[in-house]
């Protein structure tokens, strides 16, 4: 009996050697470490951008709308009417109990610079004094406070902010206590 030597296959037909560590991929530990580094970098970047955005000053209009939202929320939450007034000397909005029973108040100051700032509540009730300015009826009768009711509505009013020689009128929907969207003035010059 003749034993022959095993035949050797050509290199092109031989199976590939087992893959070494460099060709296998990443381990779970390496993937988790990479994700932790990415999360750390993202938190630093997001925190830094939030700081940059918060550095801008708050406008009186933003303080007013925040106060209006808080008044409505307080009236709904407590089930009692609340009053909103403006303290001209200290330049702040004051939320108080409409019945005068609860002495607790909340204050919403307007941040400086506010030296030449004034705020006026204007009534929109029928029979109130109005004048026509540029084809738009403007209320001239002021009120010292407005009331937010426990059902989520408020007394009809408009707010007027005077600052740096300019006037900003803020329309409030009495049913939702939200801003009234007004159409653009067709006579205004194009931007």
Keywords:
191 residues; alpha+beta; minor pseudopilin epsh fold; four-stranded antiparallel beta sheet; 24% helix
Oligomer: single chain
CATH topology of the domain at 60-171: minor pseudopilin epsh fold
Given helix and strand content, the structural type is alpha+beta
Q: What general form does the structure show?
A: elongated
Poorly predicted segments: none
Binned, the helix content reads 10-25%
How is the largest sheet built, in terms of strand order?
3-2-1-8
Spatial extent as radius of gyration: 34 Å
End-to-end Cα distance, whole Å, is: 105 Å
- Provide the CATH architecture of the domain at 60-171: 3-Layer(bab) Sandwich
**What is the tally of beta strands?**
10
Major beta sheet summary = 4 strands, antiparallel
In sequence order, what are the helices and strands, one letter per element? Answer: HHEEEEEEEEEE
Q: Count helical runs.
A: 2
CATH class of the domain at 60-171: Alpha Beta
- What share of the residues does DSSP label as strand, in percent? 25-35%
User: Residue-averaged pLDDT, rounded?
Assistant: 77
Can you offer a commentary on this structure?
With 191 residues, this protein is an alpha+beta fold. It has a domain at 60-171: 3-Layer(bab) Sandwich (minor pseudopilin epsh fold). Helices cover 24% and strands 26% of the residues. The protein is built from 2 helices and 10 strands. It has helices at 28-54, 60-78, and strands at residues 82-87, 92-97, 106-109, 118-123, 130-133, 136-139, 142-143, 145-148, 157-163, 166-171. The strands form 3 sheets. Strands 3-2-1-8 form a 4-stranded antiparallel β-sheet, with helices on one face. A 4-stranded antiparallel β-sheet has the order 7-4-9-10, with no helix packed on it. The longest helix is centred in the N-terminal third of the chain and has 27 residues, at 28-54. The termini are far apart. The mean pLDDT is 77.
């Amino acid at each position: 009996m003749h034993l022959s030597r095993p035949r050797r296959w050509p290199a092109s037909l031989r199976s590939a050697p087992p893959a070494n560590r460099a060709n296998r991929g990443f381990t779970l530990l390496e993937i988790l470490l990479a994700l932790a580094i990415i999360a750390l970098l993202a938190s630093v970047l997001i925190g830094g951008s939030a700081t940059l955005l918060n550095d801008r000053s708050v406008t009186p209009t933003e303080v007013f709308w925040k106060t209006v939202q808080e008044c409505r929320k307080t009236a709904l939450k407590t089930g009692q009417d609340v009053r909103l007034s403006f303290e001209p000397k200290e330049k702040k909005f004051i939320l108080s109990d409409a019945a005068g029973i609860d002495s607790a108040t909340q204050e919403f100051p307007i941040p400086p610079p506010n030296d030449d700032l004034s705020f006026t509540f204007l009534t929109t009730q029928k029979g109130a004094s109005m004048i026509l300015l540029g084809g738009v009826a403007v209320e001239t009768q002021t009120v010292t406070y407005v009331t937010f009711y426990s059902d989520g509505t408020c007394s009809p009013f408009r707010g007027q902010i005077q600052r740096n020689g300019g006037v900003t009128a803020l329309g409030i929907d009495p049913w939702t206590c939200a801003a009234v969207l007004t159409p653009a003035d067709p006579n205004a010059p194009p931007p």
